[in-house]
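in:
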């Protein structure tokens, strides 16, 4: 019912306020030559307001800059916020595309429902990306695996210290050029098994893309770094036996017959990269399985040779091969294990589709600049 009402709302009419202090061509070129990840931002941002009375209104593209907010804004106290992450890719002919944006839009609606935030209609979400990218199109890098990372987010802006869903919310999109995630070539990582911390529990927010899940993962991530690991793997919070996911990436184990196995749980974030990789595997005639997976199954599978590859996946790094899992009292795999063949071939296929180097059989790509 709610969705129908929102669909009936008339189209948003974006107002654009150009940034008079936009970066010069030279400044931008210098940034794009070595953007890293999440450090530099484009000249503009999208800002749409929502209020309980007025719904979604005042959509604008405005100069990138600080957000003025009351110190009592609810998000600063009770963390009522959700976000998304996707990329814009420049294809060889100069056109700019993104990957499965409706999936991100629907996921943001699911996250919003869990956080008692308003649902942004899917077409507004997609339109907001187009609006921003058209204004900042020169910021979309070309070549290799470079992209423009798009970060839509929404939070409770109402100034009110009582605990209830906010009646004033803002939605924004910012964009940040991203270089090759693995500039020296894709290298397998070691990951740390967290046994002291969980990222989410039954009935919690694990399936929502919300900052709170990241906040709760940070100490475990610190522990991983202290053990020389790049990422942390979380187990289920009840029994501490079943695989869940990494701090911000889903996990896949590959069986020697090519079957891809990924954990099932109501507290895992449903990754769009994961879903796409599983689809590409099925297109090749490989089997995919989503079910509960214990840490013992993984360990015994690697020891017996039944599990031959493992990788993590998410928008930022696409696919990251996992060399080993380190736990306090055992390890699975070895630090110098090479990246799996199937892992790397799926990674190549997906990035080729995203960057327009390969046909897009599932119509995953959407043009943003025209
Ligand atoms: C965003 C995210 C992922 C990966 O999702 P993609 O849609 O593939 O980028 C996985 N886990 C968590 C916790 C996430 O926030």
């Amino acid at each position: 019912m709610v969705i129908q009402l929102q669909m009936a709302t008339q189209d948003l009419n974006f107002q654009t306020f150009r940034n008079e202090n936009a970066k010069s061509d030279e400044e931008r070129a210098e940034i794009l030559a070595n953007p890293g990840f999440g450090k530099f931002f484009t000249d503009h941002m999208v800002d749409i307001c929502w209020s309980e009375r007025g719904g979604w209104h005042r959509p604008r593209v405005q100069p990138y800059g600080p957000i003025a907010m009351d110190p009592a804004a609810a998000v600063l106290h009770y963390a009522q916020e959700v976000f998304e992450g996707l990329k814009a890719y420049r294809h060889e002919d100069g056109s700019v595309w993104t990957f499965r944006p409706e999936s991100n839009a629907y996921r943001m609606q699911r996250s919003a429902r869990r956080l008692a935030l308003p649902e942004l209609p899917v077409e507004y979400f997609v339109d907001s990306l187009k609006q921003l990218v058209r204004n900042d199109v020169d910021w979309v890098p070309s070549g290799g695996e470079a992209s423009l990372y798009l970060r839509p987010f929404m939070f409770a802006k109402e100034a009110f210290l009582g605990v209830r869903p906010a009646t004033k919310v803002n939605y924004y999109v910012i964009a940040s050029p991203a270089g090759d995630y693995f500039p020296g070539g894709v290298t397998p990582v070691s990951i740390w098994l967290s046994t002291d911390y969980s990222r989410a529990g039954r009935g919690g927010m694990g399936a929502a893309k919300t900052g709170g899940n990241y906040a709760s993962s940070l100490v475990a991530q610190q522990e991983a770094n202290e053990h020389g690991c790049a990422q942390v793997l979380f187990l289920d919070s009840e029994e501490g036996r079943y695989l869940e996911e990494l701090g911000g990436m889903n996990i896949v184990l590959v069986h020697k017959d090519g079957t891809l196995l990924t954990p099932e749980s109501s507290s895992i974030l449903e990754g769009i990269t994961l879903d796409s990789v599983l689809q590409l595997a099925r297109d090749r005639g490989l089997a995919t399985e989503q079910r509960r997976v214990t840490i013992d199954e993984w360990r015994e599978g690697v020891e017996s040779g039944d599990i031959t590859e493992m990788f993590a996946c998410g928008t930022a790094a696409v696919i990251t091969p996992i060399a080993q899992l380190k736990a306090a009292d055992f390890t699975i795999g070895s630090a110098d294990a090479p990246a799996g063949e199937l892992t790397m071939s799926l990674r190549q296929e997906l990035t080729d589709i995203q960057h327009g180097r390969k046909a897009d059989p599932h119509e995953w790509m959407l043009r943003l600049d025209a």
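note: The chain has nine helices and 18 strands.
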